[in-house]
Design brief:
This protein is of the alpha/beta class. The protein is built from ten helices and ten strands.
């Protein structure tokens, strides 16, 4: 299978401030591990700047304009208690969204089977009209709309194994029966959403709550028993992954105990399902992960499993 890696140096320059967990070193760690010889077969492409039209399919146009206007010439400004902008943040956010769109384009035109977007800022907490939880634009939701509006797909799924619930993605999807969202996440935990009783007004949402201390057994059971069967029943034409690695046992921000093998396992299951449902078409975008060594090794396991 062919995998394209999308990234851009400006995504490293997005600086939310000293001691912020969503640090510039996160992407450096991911890209360094993907420079290893086992990843020589990856096709590497520069993430383009997204068209504003693509972002405004998901986000309120006034919000998009306001957040880009708020990017400072120097220093740091906050748009949310956890979410900050530095001079590079506007372009970084545009290229993170642009990577998602370009990845969809490449997969849909047959240039690759799948793609991994090694970008930041992350996106799955960003809602229609607000930044939240380190996230400015919702990259995976933007990818889903790119597939529908540009490539004419009807049914697109986003699945999320970040340790935090993807509230922004659920917020965008929950009323549209042609979109599917599934998430496994620590609960109760930030952002306080993602109850298993939340199924969306279109019955298109699946949430798996993992109590603090859960590990491989609970994670794999949730995916095998609930998420993967529901995803297969939905029969997506494209699968998009919110690839957060902060459920790793070494991560300092959460209390789930996954290993690199769990990320390899879930990715392999998704690859197999994509081959059955949608000609292998899959796009993955980096979300969380705050222990640098665990993030790097987990991302490597994920990308390795994308191209078995």
């Amino acid at each position: 299978m062919t995998t394209i890696l999308f990234s851009h140096p400006i995504c490293i320059e997005h600086d939310p401030g000293a001691q912020h967990p969503e640090s510039t070193d996160r992407l450096r760690a991911v890209l360094k591990t993907l420079e290893g010889p086992e990843f020589n077969s990856l096709e590497r492409r520069e993430a383009p700047i997204a068209e504003l039209e693509a972002i405004k399919r998901v986000h309120d146009p006034d919000y998009v304009d306001a957040v880009l206007d708020a990017v400072p010439d120097s220093g740091i400004v906050h748009v949310d208690p956890d979410t900050a902008l530095s001079p590079a943040s506007g372009e970084a956010a545009l290229r993170a969204a642009g990577a998602a769109c370009a990845a969809v384009d490449a997969v849909m035109t047959g240039e690759a089977d799948n793609a991994f977007c090694a970008v930041r800022p992350p996106g799955h907490h960003a809602e229609h009209e607000r930044a939240m939880g380190f996230c400015i634009f919702n990259n995976v939701a933007i990818a889903a709309e790119q597939a529908r509006k540009v490539h004419g797909l009807k049914c697109v799924a986003v699945v999320d194994f970040d340790v935090h619930h993807g509230n922004g993605t659920q917020h965008s999807f929950e009323g549209d029966a042609d979109l599917f969202f599934a998430s496994s996440h620590q609960s109760p935990f930030y952002p306080g959403t993602g109850r298993e009783s939340d199924t969306g007004t279109a019955n298109n949402i699946v949430n798996v709550e993992l109590p603090a201390g859960s590990g491989s057994v609970e994670f794999r059971k949730g995916w095998a028993d609930r998420i993967l069967p529901a995803l297969q029943e939905f029969q997506p034409e494209l699968i998009v992954i919110s690839a957060g690695f902060d459920a790793h046992a070494s991560d300092p921000l959460a209390q789930i105990r996954l290993t690199e093998e769990d990320y390899s396992w879930v990715t392999s299951k998704l690859v197999a399902l994509a081959q059955k449902c949608c000609q292998g078409r899959m796009v993955s975008s980096l979300e969380g992960g705050y222990d640098l060594a665990a993030l790097a090794s987990s991302a490597a396991a994920h990308v390795r499993a994308l191209s078995p």
